[in-house]
Amino acid sequence: MPAPVANGDGPDLAFYNIIDGKPRSSDVKEQVVDPRTEELGWDVPVASEQDLDDAVDAARRAFKTWRFVSHAERENILQNIADCLRANKDVLAQAHMKETGKSFIMASVDVEVSALHYEYYSRQFYKYHL
């Protein structure tokens, strides 16, 4: 999950694994390499086996309450994610461009398509559960 950091000419991001709703770093990191320029980018944490176990345990605990969340609230949560993607489209597209080698336009399209997916699934609750 990216978190913006004060930067100079492009997105300078810090990434964390999110486990049980909290950011978690790692002792082991990989560095993003821009495939177009071979420039080194930001570090990303590599999850350990313990991180994976903790994430699965957290997901199991979360499901106990998530399954009781109303359809309307789920729709709202997913729509908020779509809105957040769009509000941060430029910085997300720049990061996506640097890690995939895509053009800024194509990376921007990918961010928009991601937002559209969240909107689509936010409306599926009513289609299949009413």
From TrEMBL:
MF-aspect GO terms: aldehyde dehydrogenase (NAD+) activity
Highest taxon above the source species: Eukaryota
Catalytic reaction(s) noted: an aldehyde + NAD(+) + H2O = a carboxylate + NADH + 2 H(+)
Aldehyde dehydrogenase domain location: 29-127
Gene3D superfamilies, sorted: Aldehyde Dehydrogenase, Chain A, domain 1
Enzyme kind, highest EC tier: oxidoreductase
EC code: 1.2.1.3
InterPro entries according to UniProt: Ald_DH/histidinol_DH (IPR016161), Ald_DH_N (IPR016162), Aldehyde_DH_dom (IPR015590)
TM region positions: none
Pfam families: Aldedh
Similarity comment: family membership: Belongs to the aldehyde dehydrogenase family.
Family annotation (PANTHER family): ALDEHYDE DEHYDROGENASE-RELATED (PTHR11699)
Protein name: aldehyde dehydrogenase (NAD(+))
Species this chain originates from: Xylaria bambusicola
Organism lineage string: Eukaryota, Fungi, Dikarya, Ascomycota, Pezizomycotina
